[in-house]
Design goal:
Blueprint: H1 2-16, H2 19-22, E1 37-38, H3 41-59, E2 67-71, H4 83-89, E3 97-100, E4 109-115, E5 124-131, E6 137-145
Parallel strand pairs: 2-6
Antiparallel strand pairs: 1-3, 3-4, 4-5, 5-6
């Protein structure tokens, strides 16, 4: 009887596999890139054209449906300006920088632009542009602030 119980226990362990191999260790999630990525000259031109087309369409009265946000520290006069006016008054001709932002959402492609209307080292517009799955603008968020490291 003892021998039968021992045999059953050995067979049970053999069928279940070893405890170490039965456990799987979860692997950390890694993204293709966690750092902003540079854009090619063609990508920059396409993005600027898309933004400028949105400015032109809004000026002409077209009804565009994307999120448009802007802000600044409370003491700055830019807080008295509507997000639409801030967007329409911004010049996207020659951004100081343009980078593709990392994302884990395959439907959105975020970009970060820096506009320096008063020259490098002065107050700047930090702009995030998010394109949707089909390349349409989903959101433009603008923040007027001091340049880094502040």
């Amino acid at each position: 009887m003892l021998r039968e119980m021992f045999s059953i226990a050995v067979i049970g362990l053999a069928l279940s596999g070893s405890p170490a191999s039965a456990q799987t260790v979860p692997q950390p999630v890694t993204y293709a890139s966690t750092q902003p990525l540079a854009l090619t000259a063609e990508e920059k031109a396409d993005l600027i054209a898309k933004i400028q087309e949105a400015q032109t369409d809004l000026r002409s009265g077209a009804r565009l449906y994307f999120q448009l946000l802007s802000g600044a520290p409370a003491a700055y006069p830019m807080t008295a300006m509507s997000p639409r006016d801030a967007f329409l008054n911004a010049s996207f001709d020659q951004p100081a920088s343009m980078l593709r932002q990392p994302t884990d959402n395959p439907s959105w492609r975020p970009y970060r632009l820096t506009l320096t209307p008063n020259g490098v080292g002065n107050l700047l517009w930090d702009v995030e542009v998010v394109l949707g799955f089909n390349g349409q603008i989903e959101r433009i968020e603008m923040f007027y602030r001091y340049p880094p490291p502040f």
